[in-house]
Protein: dTDP-4-amino-4,6-dideoxygalactose transaminase
Organism: Lichenibacterium minor
Amino acid sequence: MPPSPRERATTVSSSDHQSPGPVAAPHPATQAGPIPFNVPLPAGNELAYLAEAIGNRHLSGDGPFTKRCNAWLERETGTRQALLTHSCTAAMEMAAMLFDLAPGDEVIMPSFTFVSTANAAVLRGAVPVFVDIRPDTLNIDERLIEAAITERTRAIFVVHYAGVSAAMDEIMAIADRHGLFVLEDAAQGMAARYDGRPLGSIGHLGAVSFHETKNVIAGEGGALLINDERFVDRAHILREKGTNRTKFLQGRVDKYTWVDVGSSYLPSELNAAFLLAQFEKIDEIQRARHRAWERYHRVLAPLAREGLLAQPTVPQICAHNAHIYYVTMPSVDKRVELLRRTKAAGIGAVFHYVPLHSAPAGLRFARQNGPLPVTEDSSARLVRLPLWAGLADDAIDAVAALVADVARGR
Ligand SMILES: *Cc1c(COP(=O)(O)O)cnc(C)c1O
């Protein structure tokens, strides 16, 4: 398997800024030096809050910073209960437990996603059932879901690729008709909306990520958004190693003990302290990301009009969050050439998911419902371009110029 996006994302670090490193001579368009795919930037109060957390003498989970982060998420998304976790992966594992997925159960999801979406089901012995994606948003094609439902289907795991929402009204209606649970993998979805509603707040459960490659970050981090009241009490227990410690701390029981299955899903207060500083600056971060996204979109528009590449499509009902700027090249060869030339120029352009149905573990643990032509075709031609809050306009223009050269065969 090729390097994961996050491994690739860190192959060029910001500290390399002056030296092109072992790669070939920079492309004339990138005299400024390497342009990393992502740079995880502090936004303001991170160091002050870390110092405060250390001073609090409370470094384990669920201290004051974790509580402030949970409260912020609840305010911001309108979810019933937000629980910080150490990753989005962990939040999705909790969701699979809360849905009581059991061996032989089936979960419908796209193949075009990160491995964690599928692993959450597989860890319970459930079988991911892949259906194809829509060519416009690269999200699960809601029109294909019903045909994949069997008497073993328990849930639909929806992924909001690039912070552009899947068709949640249609998907929730299907779930209601068939008595299925919906988990939103909103790892990429912070600050994005569907019909005015924050991503992660629409399904029965939502999971968001604060990994350093996402829009707001904690290094590693995530949260479970519990939109359905029924899951709140048990979520506290699963996250606290299967104990009723939360009730004990709230004074609702006089000792705490082992009451259910569970694991350790709490992040340290240090992560929460960093994250709170990011939350406080989310508007600035989002403004900067949108500026960069819009600039790519404007500069590359003529190429799209000429049919030399395809740009992302955002349906009217979605407010995206500028999480990813990607282009879809007209052929696999053009994609290979673009990746080769960006690499030679020190530009951190990267492909994305190897479809899970074609991966060794996908073949072992999952099945596909029908052919997945859009998944296979789109994933083979997609390239993500550098995008972060501090990315300079001239860097964007240099990247776009190289994309244009490749698209035009120069
Ligand atoms: C990043 C990502 C994840 C994993 O998030 P972690 O916080 O690193 O566990 C899961 N799903 C999708 C779609 C992602 O983009």
Observations:
- Residues 282-305 form the longest helix (24 residues).
- Confidence is low (pLDDT under 50) at residues 1-30.
- The longest strand covers residues 153-159.
